[in-house]
Amino acid sequence: MKEFNLIQRHFTPVKTSPDTLLGVGDDAAIIQPPAHQHLAVCVDTLVAGVHFPKDTHPRDIGHKALAVNLSDLAAMAATPRWATLALTLPEHDDTWLEAFAEGFYALARQHHVDLIGGDTTRGPLTITVQVMGHVPPDQALRRDGARPGDHILVTGTLGDAALALAQWDHPNPDPTLRARLTRPTPRIAAAHILRGRAHAGIDISDGLVQDLGHVLKASGLGATLQAGALPLSEAFRHAMGDGTNWQYPLAGGDDYELLFTLGEADVEPIREQLAGQGCPATVIGRIEAEPGLRVLGPDGASLTLEQGGYSHFGN
Q: Does domain 3-135 have CATH number 3.30.460.80?
């Protein structure tokens, strides 16, 4: 099948946003960001065998390719609106493409995102998605705003995806853990609650310790984390049995939860609002003036990790 027929068959949706003036089918898309809003843009590439196991279902790949970008916009408290998709395929496979498109578009419709362009090429399976959205002026959630004394919070639970990846070849994988790896939930609604109220934020993609480290570096501060306070799912606790491997929730990555900092007075009101949206948040530590990150175990002793988080090119 020729490239243009492939695009027409699988990637020419009906636009949903009046801000999309011209979408798929021309040399470039034309969009009109809402008045008095700033444009937020992010891009991520997923490579087979690096970002997902090669036998991952294509519907899950389609979902995750968009979800990881939506998570980046959530980290900025932005509202997603448009996406572009560059898809490199080893061969043409209509069944694979149909399932991939189903996963991609199901999530796009949920968040009112229009696919407005992209490219298709032949080569090793690689998916690059760019997402654009908007945020009111001076309300973007950034990494550099943490303050001494802030509480550190995270949404959802941690470690599920990393454990699912470690158990990928298990004959009876836990479906709850696997779904956390293959179909992450972008915390867009939660981010809107945090907009203009949280001091700093980031999404947890490469591991809690590493991503918190980005906030601390940008803010010029330090922190203490309480490992015993980390939110762990029932599925994770069951899989761990009598002991917890702290490497998974602290450094495993692929959680796509939000990490953010709040002043004392905002902690409980915002936690109540998030819980009302079905997105619980947990206090896991404090921001401190002293540089560096200190991680304490449930017994109060310092924890040392084998690796602080994911890196494509090593430490």
A: no
